[in-house]
Design brief:
12% strand, alpha+beta, 4-stranded antiparallel β-sheet, 20 helices, single chain
Amino acid sequence: MNVVLAGFNIDRETLKEMEEGLLPPGERLTPETVSAAYARISRDPRPVTELRRVAREDVEKARRSNRTIVFDMGHSSIAEHAVFNIDVIGVSRLAVEFIEGFRLASYTEKSQRYIRLDGDFVIPEEVRNTGLADLFTETIQAQNALYVDLHQAILHQPAGESGDDNAWKDVAKEDARYILSLATESQLGMTANARTLELMIRRAASHPLAEVREYSRRLFDATRDTAPSLIRYTESTAHYRDTKKALGKKIKTIAGPDRPSAAGDSVVLVEATKEGDNMIIASLIQNASGQPLSRCLEIARALAFHEKEALMKTACARMESWDAPLREFETADLTFDVIMSASCFAQMKRHRMATILARDYDPALGVTVPKTIVDAGMEEAFRTMIERTNEAYERIEALVPEAAPYILTNAHRRRVVIKVNVRELYHIARLREDGHAQWDIRETVRRMVELGRRVMPLSLMFACGKDAFKELKEKQKTCNPIEVP
């Protein structure tokens, strides 16, 4: 594993001094002066350009100011003005799920859909320490060998519906990867502010996996000298380290032993805002009229369906596929219980504005087998490898249960609770229902939208992939929107 500080934001005047050769020898570059200057804006009447100059001239004083304001006074948002670019290299796909679980950061990850993989994988410390490294390695090498066979078998099938040979090459890679393990090495680029980095380091230090704890140490080492006044509380805490285990023990006495089942629908709408359509319409009325929301809800309830439809179409008629719905669409929520493959989750987890609560991967939930593998006559070989993988999983789980998921494949499933507001579901649908989206998540999101429309038919009438948006708008023109003079 390698964690590299690739860059950070610094004052523009400092850049200018560097370009002109005026920066004093040995001058340490840091984003802390920007944070210190912005921290003074609320209490110092001088122009912010002057505040930045003062902070630049005395870095140690700026750091003392940051420590006082961020940690003593608790104004943590000041740390958000310092932004870092981080290279993360040689981490497992399982660890990436943790890394990309932080909302206020940006990630670009090596894609298994577009890059043909060479078999690199991480052997977790926990597995090495139990004497199961040979079993682990042999199982993953067998998975990787089958990946090559699956790729070739799919590739030599006739191209799909589009008939595009280049697109079919991507299909071969993205479907063959379902047999790859969560130990497969990956890399990513990450951009995060100092407040998020500190939280990430602290939570990673409390994680049950040694690999994630190592990531914590390396991330701290890469950033601490650059911004010591902003990255301070990085030690493991009992809250992050022990709460989940304590809850697990307590809940077993209430709910009984685990009984996972893949029976029934893989996407279930568990709960939705009561009168979701009326709630969004009431919010639109409130914004325009200024009346109390409770009164606007009464007005919305009293409207005829065609009046509600006209109002909703007016709110969406000028929207294009790249536009987000109005903020009022955030006032209604939907909560789904979804069983999804690791491949599907790898994409769903990127929608960080949603609430995503993922349970551990569980072989009892079965696997997702791509249709291309079945069509290529490789299903039996695929399922045989899954059985071998499950046997290895059971042996590892008996000794180090926290590390057992490393051996599982992208085809293995987990149960995920997804809570979204209507506006966020629009965003997910635009990206993941689109024809260019991967088939697994496309089907999952299609089902989510379909279930959502049953309870909020008006609010979600324009929810679809971006490639279908124009056609859907045309179909909905049976009721003309109100024209703005």
